[in-house]
Amino acid sequence: MNIAKVIVDVQAKAINQTFDYLIPEKFRDILSEGMRVIVPFGPRKITGFVVGKKEESEFEQLKEIIDVLDINPVLTEELLELGKWVAEDTLTLYITAYQAMLPQVLKAQYKKELIRNTDEELAHELEFLFAGRDVIRYEEFVQSTVPYTTLRNAIQDGAISINYLVKSKVTKKVITFIEPNKEAHLLEEAFMDLSPSAKKQRHVLSFFLEFPEPVEQQKLYNLTNTNRAVIKALVDKGILREYKKEVYRNPYDDTSFEKTLPLPLTKQQEMALHPIIEKIHNHKHDVFLVHGVTGSGKTEIYLQAIQEVIKQGKEAIVLVPEISLTPQMVKRFKGRFGSDVAVMHSALSNGEKYDEWRKIHAKEVKVVVGARSAIFAPFENLGIIIIDEEHETTYKQEDQPRYHARDVAIKRGQYHECPVVLGSATPTLESYARAKKGVYQLATLDKRTNNQALPKVEIVDMRNELHEGNRSMFSIALKREMESGIERGEQIVLLLNRRGYSTFVMCRDCGHVKRCPHCDIALTYHKNSNQLKCHYCGYEERMPHLCPECNSESIRYFGTGTQRVEEALNQLMPHARVIRMDVDTTRKKGAHEKLLKRFANKEADILLGTQMIAKGLDFANVTLVGVLTSDSMLHLPDFRSSEKTFQLLTQVSGRAGRHELSGKVIVQSYTPDHYSIQLASEYDFEKFFLYEMQIRKKFRYPPYVYLALITVSHQNHVKAVQITSRIAQLLLKVVGKDTIVLGPTPSPIARMKDRYRYQCMIKYKNEPELRSTIKKVMDLYADEMRKEDLSITVDMQPYHLM
Ligand code: ADP
Ligand code: ZN
Ligand code: ZN
């Protein structure tokens, strides 16, 4: 077949299709689906993905493929299919979806070089090309007459590898090894022949007589106290031999992980694991929801399920939220599966990410533990996919393609006929509702493995503090507990919720918060107009001077930063040592780990931070958790705010008393009677679920309906409103009568980078044509989007309604 179907890298709606290109003779045998190529496109040369091959094209005068970027395809057949589905499901371009599946390094064109990995004879054309060198520029190959098939075969045999040169920084590391070039008895002879004055050379040889193994050159220097000149002399004499070997940069030193063995399971763990193992054995897909309180041993269940998968010669993907990719979590997987584990998260450099990806691509690992995008790991024989903390919104990509890793996981699970396991102490309402209906299989673990009770939660009513004259952000109870904790030499975690982009208005006397009468979300204060606005439906009213509930004048907007809290804390308790962890103090690479390490080493009494400290941390000495402002998340303009508050309070409470010492939690609140604060303090997920479901039903929110969000932005205010309004009208005409189209309303971030942002929200139950309708509507604006400064984005599963 001499024609390739190519998805080209042009970010435009009109180009979202395959183009036919002729495959030149030299590529014909090696070109296959999933490879990246360079093709002519108009006057330009661009990259593209080969997605198919065929004999004939309806077009005449096809242009030829200029170059092949990969000798081994970077996308498997499954991933090509999956990318297509992702693009269609999220209304994005195919090219965008494919690029999202690959590490950054492979999204661009980089200079390449070929590295020789072996001393064994290569095909003679290749020997000729390398001409005694270990590394050559890729262009030398391109300009030579060596057939592509010859190179491909050498690459597949592992004799040669391709290295992408990422900006002057080499992505692969090449290390020189030294080994004996003679058999043991000949080596001894050589040793005898050496002049007795060549002390250093004799010393090196005696080393190899004792350990006749390859050694890294650098290590050899250290071990034998020699230098390059000595080694070179021995190499030149043909006694030793040197060769270069490509090694992966290893962000985690595998040797430092202590090996762990499977633990005998508790009854509850056993019951949760058993049905999962059964699916693994029967090669059947199913989705499991493991609902287990913090410390109930969910991770051990994952580990033992993966072990079973590896036993079958299959592979596993484990997704964890970026935030919990702490050394603690990585240690648990590396400790059990050692170098079979690749780790992928955003703190790795591009080169490191590429290395981890290549280990997966080359089938050198069995398990990947990673953040969201690890769901696209190019495994071909998946046996299980695990999503820990399944309720985390970081599993939804907020940029194109706006996919949810859970959906992709289930799609891959179906393809590979393997189980997908979702785990959480506080599942999403969506997942829990599905589990209750029997769509997912539910396993419940309500006991901690150490049988410790969950820490007691005390809710402090901050309105009373104010009435009693305490204007500080620390209640009397919290201060007392912190002091006695520090006295006992124990540690404290203090959580300050991130404040939303916008501020809400609350009465400090009675805790009253103004909410939209139609949408039940907190109204947002707009300083310029002194108005309160609803960001879902556009309802607005004037900012009141007096609290409508209690007539107090203490009604105002709300929000504090961690830095201010730290200052106040230093004033209140000058002797306490505080570590502050927020976006500012963790910006530098490795800062996150360093701060946690210092806290673990007891270099501080208090760890003060935002959400990022709520999850996954496991410090034996933490006995007190304080939540300073439990309200600030409760009143985000988001219908999920109660759910998020419940989740956060449960998570952070789980940080206390995880080991021998028992723990305590103090939650400060201006709305202590709110059901999500009350029920979180009782750890009553079931009751919370039932209550919250009623509200979702009443105001028509997921999981009762699906949402879609269209956001329009333009520099011209009027234009932004007009287009949004037109889109809403067009949609209203075609949707069913049960479907609600809201808008145009200003986005919660109404103006960003001098662009006005308006949105239209669709609430629907059954609209099989919705995607194609939205696509058609967007196509109407395709011209304007290209020529003018108009942007329209669609999110078919919005989480951040901002
Ligand atoms: P979760 O992920 O549900 O919060 P973890 O997996 O972190 O819980 O388990 C909590 C603690 O219990 C860990 O220290 C873990 O090593 C320990 N653990 C897990 N399973 C068992 C078991 N079967 N027996 C004893 N200890 C266990
Ligand atoms: Zn009031
Ligand atoms: Zn509203």
Report what the structure shows.
There is one protein chain. By secondary structure, this protein is of the alpha/beta class. The protein folds into six domains: 3-102, GIY-YIG endonuclease; 110-247, no CATH class; 263-395 and 406-445, P-loop containing nucleotide triphosphate hydrolases (Rossmann fold, 3-Layer(aba) Sandwich); 456-501 and 559-695, P-loop containing nucleotide triphosphate hydrolases (Rossmann fold, 3-Layer(aba) Sandwich), CATH 3.40.50; 503-557, no CATH class; 706-795, 2-Layer Sandwich (Alpha-Beta Plaits). It is built from 26 helices and 34 strands. Strands 15-16-14-17-18-13-19 form a seven-stranded parallel beta sheet, sandwiched between helices. It has a six-stranded parallel beta sheet with strand order 20-30-29-21-28-27, sandwiched between helices. Helix 10 (267-282) packs parallel to helix 11 (298-311) and helix 21 runs parallel beside helix 22 (675-681). The protein is globular. The two termini are 49 Å apart. Adenosine-5'-diphosphate (ADP) binds next to helix 11. Pfam families: DEAD, Helicase_C, PriA_3primeBD, PriA_C, Zn_ribbon_PriA. Zn(2+) 1 binds at residues 507, 510, 547, 550. Its EC number is 5.6.2.4. Component of the replication restart primosome. One of its GO terms (molecular function) is zinc ion binding.
